[in-house]
Amino acid sequence: MSVLFEATGIQKAFSGIRALEDVSLKVEAGERVGLIGPNGAGKTTFFNCVLGVLRPDAGQVLLDGEDIGGLPVHRRARRGIGRTFQRIELFSDMSVREHLLLAERVRRGEGSLLRDLFGRGGPNADERRRCDEVLELLGLGDLADEPVEALSLGQGRLVEVGRALMTEPRLLLADEPSSGLDRGETDALATTLRQVQGERGFAILLVEHDVELVASFTERTYVLDFGHVIAEGSTAEVMSDELVRHAYFGDIGNIDSESRS
Amino acid sequence: MVLAAGTGTDVVRAILQGTPPGAVYALVALGFVLTYKTSGVFNLAFGAQAFVSAAMFFQARVEWGWSTVPALVLAVFVLAPLTGLLMERLIFRHLRTASAVSKLVVAIGLSVALPSLFETLTGFAGVAGRTPEGLVPDGATVFYDPLGVYPFSRDELVALGVAVVGMLGLGALFRFSSIGLAMRAVVESPRMTELAGIDADRVSSVAWMLSSFFAGMAGVLIAPRFNTLMAPDFFHLVVVAVAAAAIGRLVSLPRALIGGLGLGIFIALFRTFLPRWSADHPWLEPFQNNLTPSMPFVVLFGVLVLWPAIRRSPAAADPLSGVDPPPPSLVSATRSAVLTRAARVFGVCFLLLVGLTVWFRGDVVWVHLVTQATIMSLILLSVTVITGLAGQISLCQGTFAAIGALTVFQLADRWDVSVLAAALVGAVIAAVVGALLSIPVLRLGGIWLAIATLAFAFFFDAVMLKFSWVGGGDSALLQGHRVPRPVLGPWDLADDRRFLVLVVVVFALVSVFVIRIREGTTGLILRGLRGSEVAAESVGVSPARARMLAFAISAAIAGLGGGLLAIHQENVNYGNNFTPMAALFWVVLVVTLSARTVEGAAQAGAAFSLFNSVILRGDGIGWITRGHLPGFFPLSPKWRFVLFGLASIQFARHPEGLVEHGKRRATAGMDARLAARRERAEPGAASSTAQQDPPSPDPSKVAAVGKQP
User: Fold this and answer.
1) Most buried of B5, B135, B539, B568, CB within 10 angstroms?
2) Do A111 and B513 touch (CB under 8 A)?
3) Which chain A positions have a beta carbon within 8 Å of B388's beta carbon?
């Protein structure tokens, strides 16, 4: 497999507080990778640096070997980085299908003001077909015309996944998809996500709090603590790692001194 | 280039000179921050409150011949706190949970309504040539020069003294009284204070009375600077207050105080040390002369655009905005097909009837009014695009329209270009200006965008307009016939009826465009951005590009409308048509009626142009009663501002607009009745329709059910 995404030596400080110190991470094409760590470990900061919401102080972000560090958020999205949100972000006042249609239309880049003015701005048959395919894949077919306000949180997460899929991502960044969901809902989401991922073959970087989900879903895992990667490797190995168990369950002060040494 | 000599004495002089106005600015900024922090209202009506007190003082002192002290007590110590209390009790208390933008709209409505309400109730009228009285006799002509550097006028000293006393008083109140302590706590964190068991309502009432008192005081202090008491001049005060408060990032009272003082001194320093470019480049003279008075707008715009912290301040990203319910979808998208068809047929019949009546029965005045209404509707469509579609409140639509009108004037007057071509050029220029303006203000959201566009409108009004290549000198601003009517092929549109036809055709075309934009890619993307900017970005939408497009489209429509208005009136008439205050009223009208539909803009345009003659002058009643008018007609045209300004209060309750709200209720009623009738005719079939109606049903399905015998 080839390396799809690579972040090297990412550093970020907020007025003196070093949120990230030299974080490096690789995702290969089609791989499922987890990024875990306790609260305040720097997961969200790292995520934002990858997406372009924040500019890292140092380090490179490469997609297919190409430096995308200077690109704004929407350009990275067009290069093939899709995402879902921890606090669900849907377009109010839109139906489920319209969420996907918007993403599809932007991906194609065919819409223009001129087409709108000639009354040709509506969705065409091909776009509708592609949206409906993804909706069926996610099991949202029956909800296509519902306004998103009518959905449950779990369904909303799926709509976010569907919306991201329409951009044909090569890497999907999932930001704590389990937050707000109970065990059953989380498992259902994981099952669907894995199925879709198997079918479409994109890579997933799962940023999670829920160790159980990461353990069952990912192939490799990185553990972040105090802005450092303290462990990486196959998920099974990482989960049995002493350091990781300390970071999650043990004495934080201890870990700190160990990781610095 | 001749530079002003910069010596130490000059600096001291400038600082002394800037201190008295700075102290007044600080007073206003304090009041502004006080209401903002205690009730979350970005009170743009502040200037109107200052005006009301200043006018009351003038009325009592000059018209009724009272002496200074009772007049001051009435205007500042009674009327001002009372106004504040009423505003809080009757209006803003009930809007506590409304979004920041809806509160802003209500405040704008009040800033339009309050001065007119005061003027109608008291019969006050600003008379040219009668300079407002200061608190002390000969305030502007007696000077004291304690330091031998800068002579203070009596008015300045009084302003300084009062402002200092006011600030000390506020400081003492905050330090030593219990309500002051509570207020300080509310300013820091309203929610924490409520949790501590303090009655936030009471605190908020007191804060409003205090801030309104400050506004009134500042109004009276500042009035002697103007030749005539006019509400728009006092509106500048708000801009200054917002600028000073923005320097303090709206978070703390001491910072607002420093911001106000600093702004006053900065303006004085600027005036002293501004290089005299105009000595070498005479064409810069208008810029040179008008830059200093418009400094607050420039500072405000600069602070908003260049200070990244502002963007992250709470107003820019209201943490509760995610809790706001989404705007409901349009009635036209949810009602049943039968009703849609009925509404269309009725609408076409109504428009035909109006058209035929005006064409065959209307006299010159009526044709003129209807033309005016149609052009206004066109201009207001620009608000539909930027506010209804893109969800941004822009307060500089008047400026865009003025750019269109001035382009027509310049091209026709200087180069004899055909006016219709000139109107199109004007639309293009307005679009370019709109797109350029959108670049610096893009990252600002909600309230801050509105304020930045307001600052731009004032800047254009105060500085750009004075250039003869923009404003065309006095001739374009005053009355007269400088713009000819066009000739289109065989038709000479000097004929009012033919011109009306042209205007209606243009309006219809632009309406179709707006609807198509709403339903096409552009509308989809803008709706997405309005729903969630981060999510739209995550699928590849460029917010900058989309908003720039929205601004450009909106500005183009306003520019085209402005051009047509200039052609219709055969001149620009900037002062009547396009001032920043007039444009504020437009926004209030449209969002109050309905910002998201073309009908909303049409109704707002009709209301703007026809309300005065049909309702207030009594022509409508007179027509019905065949000339027997009740005695209280004609009503003052100012009621238009009062009524629509106050109607904006409704906006907070029905953000979709009054028309849309009424339509929804009527439609729901009709649908229910239709369903009930069908139920009687054929049980079973109707109930399925009724179930499908409320969310957004597939129209084809409903139509199919409706067609069943």
Assistant:
1) B539
2) no
3) none
